[in-house]
Amino acid sequence: MATRKSPNHPNTNKNNLKGKQNSMATATIPHLPVLVIHHILQFLPTKHAIRMSSLCKQWAGLWSSLPVLDFEEEGLDFDKEEDSPRAKFINFVDRCLEIHEKYEHLDKFRLRMIFLLGFETQYKFNKWLRFAVERRVKELDISFSCIHQFLAVGLLSPLLNAKSITSLNLENVTIDADWDEPIISLPSLKTLSLKTVRFKPSSFISSLISGCPCIQYLSLTSSSSSDYNIISMQTLLDAKSLTSLTLKFVVIMDDINNDPPVGCLPYLKTVSLTTVDMYYGTFAQLISSSPSLEHLSVSISFPRYYNYSLPSSNLKSFEVRIFNSDVVRVIGTKSLESCTLVLESPKQIKRIQFGRCENLKHLSIRAPQLPNFTLQLHGCKHLVNASLDIPKLDFNRINSNVEWRHFYSLANYLGKFQSFENISLYVDDAEALIFPKNMRKFYDPPLRTVNTLTVFISSPRGAKDSKLRHSLFWLRPESLSIIYSDL
């Protein structure tokens, strides 16, 4: 006679489940060398590194010997009570620093706070900075969630003469040195990143950069055009070790005494200028003073007719955002391999000319609407890829005249690039590429010499793939690919 097995007691099932979960958790954490665990924990905020240390006995307490301290305050809190989130955060940082007092060095100290409010919090902030500098910190990263946290320069005094710092990042602060502009000496600093940082007086930024004789990477970015930082051209030319320069919403001024800036940036390889206010003569001097320049990105309002004469013998890539120019010329850059033109007002551009760019291989043109310009390529012997981004290429089928004007303009535009081997075309509307059958009978295909045409479409809008393929094959490329990005 068969016997029925009695079901397990509910508590027994829960205990078994907990046991399985614990064994699974233990099984997923293999025994690792201490150096490997240290390496993993260094990428975590200190709070999470402490939690990770409780996973198993091997990890226990290892966070306290890490040369990295990373603190991030969470939640907006104005409460001054002892059990408030702000008070708990301050106590947590204090306890962690006490545990690290016995160690003599730090590789990185990162502090993310919402704001500084009140004398006590400012005192703590200064104390924490001093702790990091006394332990010869290499990387210092300070930021606030509230934009333009006001900091008297005295609060930053520990770091202004820190001999060990190699990387400094400040974000969302206003540094006030109106009453006391200190002497700055950061002899080991190589990377300086200032994001949404204001200076009082504005000349303090020049003093800061001048105090960094070994600086290689400089990034100075503001939040908007109403929040420009001002820097002198001479200050930039004096930073002779620069290899990378990034400026956004910055004014580059000439000397107030009208003395011409003098100097050279022999190691500068990468320059990015976004919404930078400067004379085009100053821009030309910056480029001519950088003989090793390889990558240049520019977004500046220059005169309506402007020559980008780029004498750098090493320049390989050039990207320019064009606002108000009728004619743009890129002349005499023999090593240039890639060029990107972003046309903010495509209807205004009349001519784009490349001269003596013997090694130009890749040309990318981005325009919100179909532009109509003359493209001249003189002395460009190795044209390989053309990328044409026209996201708002569309038309309304109101009448046949409107329709034909659109497609004639499109065919003429594509025909400008028939000297390239490969063309990539980016559009939103698939129907805007279906040329009328009558036009295909009488109009010469514009891409007869092109090897490959790749079309990227973000909104097919019901256009049949067969119609689209017939239309694009009429352009006469040797091979065709159509990629729908919404699929």
Which features does this protein show?
487 residues; alpha/beta; Leucine-rich repeat, LRR (right-handed beta-alpha superhelix); 18-stranded parallel β-sheet; four-stranded parallel β-sheet; 22 strands; 24% helix; 28% strand; globular; disordered N terminus
Number of strands: 22
Judged by helices, strands and strand pairing, the structural class is: alpha/beta
Query: What's the level 1 CATH class of the domain at 67-206?
Result: Alpha Beta
Architecture of the domain at 67-206, CATH level 2?
Alpha-Beta Horseshoe
Mean pLDDT: 83
* Helix share, percent: 10-25%
State the shape. Answer: globular
Instruction: Return Rg in Å.
Output: 30 Å
Major sheet description: 18 strands, parallel
Unreliable stretches: 1-27
Determine the strand fraction and express it as a percent band: 25-35%
Instruction: Figure out the total of helices.
Output: 11
**How far apart are the first and last residues' alpha carbons, in Å?**
62 Å
CATH topology of the domain at 67-206: the name is Leucine-rich repeat, LRR (right-handed beta-alpha superhelix)
